[in-house]
Amino acid sequence: MGRILFLISIGLGGAAVLISLGLWQVQRLAWKEAVLADITARIAAEPVALPDDPDPVADKYLPVAVTGTYADQAIYVLVSQKQIGAGYRVILPMQTDTGRRVLVDRGFVRLEERDAVTTPTGEVTVTGNLHWPQEIDRFTPEPDLEANIWFARDLPAMAETLNSEPLLIVARTTSLPEGPVMPLPVDTAGIPNDHLQYAITWFSLALIWVAMTAVFALRGNRRRPERPNS
Hints:
The protein is of the alpha+beta class.
């Protein structure tokens, strides 16, 4: 009997821990959904003028509208789009009408259409969002400068190469035709939200824990068959 009580206490204790972890993930899910909703609202807000000294934390995703002219330079960042395939993000420097030189992520072009990309001439107004991408890690290859192929949006390095401020505007719309370049606006798709899967995992483990405890308890409760008298 003592062994059965011990198994039950272990089973209930372990299940309680696993259930508490699942409930914590449910709370984290609600928090993350609120954060994503706030970011989505910020992204879609009315654009403002480019701040004089934008902050990478407070002004991340800030919608802005800038007017200026593109410089005839470009950086091509290798990326892949679902249902489309491989291609490049096209990054250009823009000389704004206020005298600043910033970077604009014009959007995506397919691999085979890179040679068809031209730099729009004349004044252009870009509406988009400020972004400070965090895409560099120790596994990111160095850019192939000869072929002008980059493997991540390394904002400081791109700004140095294109002689601009380390400030990136991801275009949502522009006043001029973009040709083969398709804008890739900022959204929340790249922000992970796996808390529901984590919660399901913890609750499933709790159920398995209880089931295994019941199996061991039932086995231990069985009486051994009596040996026949010799």
